[in-house]
Amino acid sequence: MRMKSMFGFISIVTLALCLSLPQYVTAASDEEKIVQMMENFDKAINTADLELMSSLFWHSPKYSSFGPPKNLAYLTKGWEGIEEMWKTMFKYPAGTYSSSAHNVQVAMLKDDVAVVTSYSVITFRPPVVKEETSELLRGTSVVQKIGGKWLIVHDHASRLPIE
Predict the structure, then answer these.
(1) How far apart are CA 25 and CA 134, in angstroms?
(2) pTM
(3) Quick check: 62 and 153 in contact, CB under 8 A?
(4) Domain edges within the chain
(5) How many Cβ atoms are within 10 Å of 67's Cβ, its own excluded?
(6) Neighbour-count burial of 46, counting CB atoms closer than 10 A to its CB (0-12 exposed, 13-18 middle, 19+ buried)
(7) Listed ranges 13-27, 127-141, 144-158; the one with the highest mean pLDDT
(8) What value does the mean pLDDT of the chain take?
(9) CATH of 29-159, one of 3.10.450.50, 3.65.10.10, 3.50.30.40, 3.40.50.720
(10) How far apart are CA 60 and CA 79, in angstroms?
(11) Rounded CA separation 31/147 (Å)
């Protein structure tokens, strides 16, 4: 009987401690979730993972993008418009492209909307040519929490001028 009482007492104390912890101790902030989402963007490029890339975007005709590749120099609307570019990129084996974002800044506009800015280095290592090229890009993404998940609803990337 004493053992059951002691176990019950310890269980109640443990539960009370867990419930009394501040929310920020147990859950990542929205800013941290957004930074993690942007890290997953790099991971998707680095591993040629179309499924992961797709999971980061709003699949709506209202999604929009301006990008640096020649075929995306103008406004692209809807996920399908940019999905073809990712499919083409990811035909190459993982490691052909690499991406690393730097100085990622998150500005919360509302509880469910934020602007993310960063600089990225995109490197292309064609399997046949074996010659590496790199580009420096500056990017801005508008992200929104939709259905409890942060998604890219608009993005814009441009090449940094070469001096």
Answers:
(1) 39
(2) 0.78
(3) yes
(4) 29-159
(5) 19
(6) middle
(7) 144-158
(8) 82
(9) 3.10.450.50
(10) 6
(11) 17
